[in-house]
Design a protein that fits this description.
This protein has helices at about 1-25, 25-45, 60-90, 90-95, 105-130, 140-165, 170-185, 200-205, 210-220, 230-235, 235-260. It is an all-alpha fold. It has one domain (about 30-260). Helix 2 (about 25-45) runs antiparallel to helix 3 (about 60-90) and helix 3 (about 60-90) crosses helix 9 (about 210-220).
C-alpha cells in the first residue's frame, strides 16, 4: 500500500508538471480546442446542406456525435508530440534516473491527457448546443455516451504513448497525422457507410471509431443509420470491446517500451 501511495503521488506530480506546461503555452491549447469547432462549422454549414441524413433528420445532429469522437482521435497527435518532445530533450531519461515510481511518467502523461480531452469534449458539447444539437434520451444515457467517448480516447492514448516511445522521432508526427486523417474519415462520422462502395463501407463499419460514433448516436437519440451487419446492430457493445482490446494490447507495450529506454 505504501508503494502504491507513492506511485500515485509521483504520477500526480508528473500530471501537474504537464498541466503547468499547458498553462505556460495557452495559445497552443486554445488552437487545439478551437480546431474541432472549425471542423464543425465547415462540415455543418458548408457541406451539410448537400448531405442527406439516413432516415431523415438534421445533419448537424447526425454530425456532432461523430465530431465528439473525432476530437478524441485528434488527441493522439498531442500525446505523441508531448512524449516524443520529452524523449528528444532527455527529460524522460532524467525522470527514469530519479527516485520515483517507474509508472509515474506514463501514468502522469495519461492523466494529464485525459483531463485535456475532457476539457476538449466539454468545448465541443458547448459548440454542439450552440449549433442546435441536443440529446433526446435522458441525461443518464447521455452520460454513458460521453463515457464511451472518453474510453475511446483512453485507448488511443496508449497507442500514442507506445508509438512515441517506440519511434522517439518528433518528425514522425507528420506521418502519424497522415494516418489519423484517413482513418477518421473512413468511418461513419460524416456520412453513412451505405453511401460507399460495398468493400469500403464494410471497412468503415469495422473501424473502431464507427462503433463509438454509432453508439453515441444511439444513446443520444440522434439521427443515425441502421445497417444490417452484426457490428452495426451491436454498436454499444463494440464501443466498449474495441477500446478494451486496444488497451489490452498497447498498455503493456507502452510500459515495456518505457522500461527499455536507454538511460
Amino acid at each position: 500500500m505504501t508503494r502504491l501511495r507513492w506511485a500515485l503521488a509521483d504520477g500526480w506530480t508528473i500530471t501537474l508538471r504537464d498541466l503547468n506546461h499547458w498553462v505556460a503555452q495557452p495559445v497552443q491549447i486554445v488552437f487545439g480546442l478551437l480546431f474541432p469547432v472549425l471542423m464543425v462549422l465547415m462540415f455543418g454549414y458548408l457541406f451539410g446542406g448537400g448531405i442527406a441524413v439516413p432516415g431523415g433528420g438534421d445533419y448537424r445532429e447526425f454530425l456532432m456525435p461523430g465530431m465528439y469522437a473525432m476530437t478524441m482521435v485528434f488527441g493522439i497527435e498531442a500525446t505523441y508530440a508531448a512524449v516524443t518532445a520529452d524523449a528528444a530533450r532527455g527529460v524522460t531519461d532524467r525522470f527514469r534516473a530519479m527516485p520515483m515510481a517507474g509508472s509515474a511518467v506514463v501514468v502522469g502523461r495519461s492523466a494529464a491527457d485525459m483531463l485535456n480531452s475532457a476539457l476538449g469534449l466539454a468545448v465541443m458539447v458547448a459548440c454542439g448546443l450552440a449549433v442546435g444539437w441536443r440529446w433526446h434520451e435522458g441525461l443518464g444515457r447521455a452520460m454513458l455516451a460521453f463515457g464511451l467517448l472518453l474510453l475511446l480516447r483512453f485507448a488511443l492514448l496508449w497507442l500514442g504513448i507506445y508509438l512515441a516511445l517506440a519511434l522517439r522521432s518528433p518528425e514522425a508526427l507528420v506521418a502519424l497525422q497522415v494516418l489519423v486523417w484517413p482513418i477518421g474519415f473512413l468511418s461513419n462520422t460524416y456520412v453513412s457507410p451505405e453511401t460507399m462502395p460495398g468493400w469500403l463501407g464494410a471497412i468503415a463499419e469495422w473501424n473502431p471509431l464507427s462503433s463509438t460514433v454509432a453508439a453515441a448516436r444511439e444513446l443520444f437519440g440522434n439521427p443515425g443509420w441502421g445497417g444490417d451487419s452484426w457490428i452495426t446492430q451491436h454498436a454499444v457493445l463494440m464501443a466498449v470491446a474495441w477500446p478494451l482490446l486496444l488497451i489490452a494490447v498497447f498498455f503493456p507495450l507502452s510500459v515495456r517500451a518505457y522500461r527499455r529506454l536507454s538511460s
